[in-house]
Amino acid sequence: MTPSKSYSFIPVRNAVERPSIVPSIVTISVISACVAFWPMMYVNDDSTGGGAAVFVMFLTIPAGVVVFLVSLLLSIRSHKKSLVGYNEWKSEEE
To answer: In whole angstroms, how far apart are CA 48 and each of 44, 53, 54, 65, 92?
Structure first.
């Protein structure tokens, strides 16, 4: 008895394409901006004239910078590792 081989067509990128770091940097930037400026979106205190949001932003802006820098460093390190793997694969192909 052989199992049924019904595969759905799912477009998949070539797993061994030259790695790109640009999408990672864009994602990191958006997430860091959300971390840094979320008080502007959620803290709406009309009684203090926005003072509560400013106070919270003194904490979240540095947190957003830290998230950005750490994520950027990890992304660059991962990109270098994948670039080495890509170069090894490319040299084996030739």
So the answer is: 9, 9, 10, 26, 65
pLDDT confidence of residue 60: 87
Q: What pLDDT sits at residue 79?
A: 83
Rounded mean pLDDT for each run of 10 residues along the chain, 94 residues in total: 55 60 87 84 62 78 91 88 79 73
Asked if 26 and 58 touch (Cβ cutoff 8 Å), the reply is no
Q: Where are the domains of the chain?
A: 22-93
Structure tokens at 87: 């170069």
Per-residue model confidence (pLDDT) at position 15: 56
**Which three-class secondary structure state does DSSP give residue 25?**
helix
E strand or H helix at 14: none
Distance of alpha carbon 84 from alpha carbon 66, whole angstroms: 27
Alpha-carbon distance values, 70 to 9, 65, 66, 76 (Å) = 38, 9, 6, 10
